[in-house]
Amino acid sequence: xxxxxxxxxxxxxxxxxxxEEVRLTGRGVLGDRAYALVDTTDGTVASAKxxxxxxxxxxxxxxxxxxxxxxxxxxxxVLALPDGRELRSDDAGTDSALSELxxxxxxLTSEVPEGSRFEEQWPDIExxxxxxxxxxxxxxxxxxxxxxxxxxxxxxxPGTFFDLAALHVLTRATLEQLTALGGGxxxxxxxxxxxxxxGGTDPGFAEDAWVGRSLGLGDSARAGVSMLTMRCVMTTLAxxxxxxxxxxxxxxxxxxxxxxxxxxxxxxxxxxxxxTGEGVVRSGDPVTLA
Length: 290
Known about the structure:
By secondary structure, the protein is mainly β. The protein is built from 5 helices and 20 strands.
């Protein structure tokens, strides 16, 4: 097995950057989800998982102005807007420009608000998530589709903008399996926003068997695979050159529903992991399974 590609998303829910190497730390990929937009009216962290409010975020992309370094302050990020303009996180007018673009008052920050939460819309797709979880977290509706309010980063290190866990790993084999099952939908890796895309595995949903095991990444980095990754409406949205397509999520819900201990049965693809050994990893590095 080997690392097929590496991805970093400097701002939560914006398009990110494919990079040739990253540093894995106890907080995940250095610089990943380092910033987020926060709704100044209620403190909610903006997430495209609530598409009516925040789907426009997927029309923006973010990159670091300079490479982040361990132990140093975060460098500014550069945001590319759909009209070709660029904004920097350290420019005085950035928050105003983003608020005008999104139609809601927001601030771009690297500081996680206390008690922060995000919102997630549940499309009308059978088998997507346990009904009791959706019912227990619903606080609003978009038409007939419930919207949950969920605490941020329940399995991630404190002070991070991850929805759940610090590292997301996906295999090329899973994308190929979904493509074979998907009736023409495009299962581009960009829909799934992994940090590490792994190639050279057995065919099928290869990473299912990795839960509870340890991945060796490159020379020294290690990651403990903690659970399967639940999939959401965000994978269906238009982003980059990809069109909106709910068929992608229906395919996962129809063909790959899996029990997550203590959490019920979910539509899954990929795995979450915790970094258990820090180090620099590069595209093409070997991957081992212990």
